[in-house]
Design brief:
Elements lengths: L4 H7 L9 E3 L5 H4 L9 E5 H7 L7 H4 L4 H12 L3 E4 L3 E4 L2 E5 L8 E7 L2 E7 L5 H5 L10 H14 L6 E3 L4 H5 L21
The structure holds zinc ion.
Zinc ion (ZN) binds next to loops.
Length: 198
Amino acid sequence: MLHPPERGLKLLGVDARKVKDVIITHLHYDHVGNFGLFPSASFHLQDEEMAYATGRHMAQGFFNYAYEAGEVAAMVREVYKGRVRFHDGDAELAPGLSLHRIGGHTKGLQAVRVHTRIGWIVLASDAAHLYANMNETRPFPIVFDAGAMVEGYRRLRELADAPELIVPGHDPLVMRRYAPPRAGLRGIAVRLDRRPKL
Ligand SMILES: [Zn+2]
């Protein structure tokens, strides 16, 4: 890890301590591990994700190995403080910004749809780790429900204005296809509201 999230946000001019809303796509450690950096935020999470991460399937290593029990427990404590905003399926957070549950990878993963100057883009998170998962219908092996995962690829295409405007969660090609906000941020951050180079 070359850039911890707090520092990465600072480079973009965002003070993590002042952020009001954080969307947790799912509770896997690589998507939730730093939520303590956002002391002023509400956390947006699907009902199904919290139920999954605290329920019967977590007794199995196959399903729990990308979760950290301590982080899930810490998020439960945030629930008790009133800081978690639960959603059940599709939800509009603001005009041009909506959440969409796409099961498969986990039971309650949500993708994020954003309206930008190039149209509706979709941040798939782990609904598609790599471009090839969705484009070649090759499900990623960290999976709760392979059928829902494949159905999710179709749903992602429905939500985006064009297939190339779906941003997968873990594909290094994202950093090559999109331009950095400024020269000094090459390899660190990209602008998703400018057309990707294919
Ligand atoms: Zn994941």
